[in-house]
Amino acid sequence: MKKSSIAVALVLGSAVSTVAYAEPLTVYGQLNVSAQSSDEGEGRFSELKSNSSRFGLKGDFALDGGLTLVYQVEWAVDLADVSGSENITSRNQYVGLKGNFGEVRLGRHDTAQKDAQGKIDLFSDYEADVKALWRGEVRASNSVTYYTPKFNGFGMQLTYVMEDAADAEDAYSASVYYGDENLKDSAYYAAISMDSEVAGYDTLRLQTQVKAADFKLGAMFHSQENITTGVEQDGWLVSAAYPVGKTELKAQYQTLEDDDAISVGADYKAGKNTTLYAWYSSFNFDVNSPDRDYLAVGIKHKF
User: Could you give the angle at the alpha carbon of 113 between the alpha carbons of 137 and 167, nearest 5°?
Assistant: First the structure.
């Protein structure tokens, strides 16, 4: 019933918007499924994985006084092995205002820390996503997000997470960034970001990515502290990508103290919105967890 209601809302919303407005509503999504051979310490097995497949609605409406209403309602959907009511879960969902002052968003949103990495993580959404080793990849509920206007290439993002309980604490996330994270308007991107008491951790990151002679080269430094235990850990990441015709070759190495992960892969552009890919990731853990490795082939389609 829940899925049917959402589907009906999409159809009706699209029909109404076509009549009444020019561009108030965009329906979008991403379907990403891989077939994997996985070994997580107890023997190798095969599996299908849905890698952050999603669909959503977004749009904006012109208001009086030079203001614009903005909104996004996005859901994750598992195409591989989760069914029933757990198949559809919430992602970024917010409503806000945009104007000369910048943009404010109210709802559930990626923190400034999470957004600040840009496109440096070349294996985002897969097993070797940076969140496999690092804290700080948080989508915060009960949050207010503010983007400043950009000035000479500089911008700032702030996140305020409300405590939502009498015995809880407010949390904060902030970033200052420079350049273009997509490396289109400029050949460089850099950011410094931090979390304060977000999901039980204080974190700090320095990150940069440049495009030089067709290479995309990225680097990140990460520091985290568990608020409860006081344990501090540091790590770093380097990534590189290079195009060969319609194929992009990529590699990445990430650490957290004595733990590390190495990944290599290739993305083939099969169409404007479709990518065929293959990758291999290996994790080496110093203590507590068995080493892991994954080999995958898959398809990603955006609409």
Answer: 75
Cα(303)–Cα(107) distance, integer angstroms:
24
Let me know: does 189 contact 176? Beta carbons within 8 Å.
Answer: no
Phi, psi of 35, deg, nearest 5: -95, 125
Question: Which of 107, 102, 95, 75 lies closest to 3, judged by CA?
Answer: 75
What is 85-144 written as a DSSP string?
Answer: GGSEEEEEEEEEEEETTEEEEEEEEE-HHHHTTTT--TTTTSTT-GGGT-S---EEEEEE
Q: How far is CA 172 from CA 68, 78, 201, 228, in A?
A: 26, 30, 11, 17
Structure tokens at 79: 């195409």
CA–CA distance, 83 with 2 (Å, rounded to integer): 12
Amino acid letter, residue 36: Q
Tens-digit pLDDT profile for residues 212-271:
999 999 999 999 999 999 999 999 999 999 999 999 999 999 999 999 999 999 999 999
> Which residues fall within 8 angstroms of residue 48, CB to CB, at 6 or more apart?
33, 34, 35, 36, 80, 81
Contacts of 287 (CB under 8 A, 6+ apart): none
- Per DSSP, 16 falls in state H
Question: 22: exposed, middle or buried (C-beta count within 10 Å: 0-12, 13-18, 19+)?
Answer: exposed
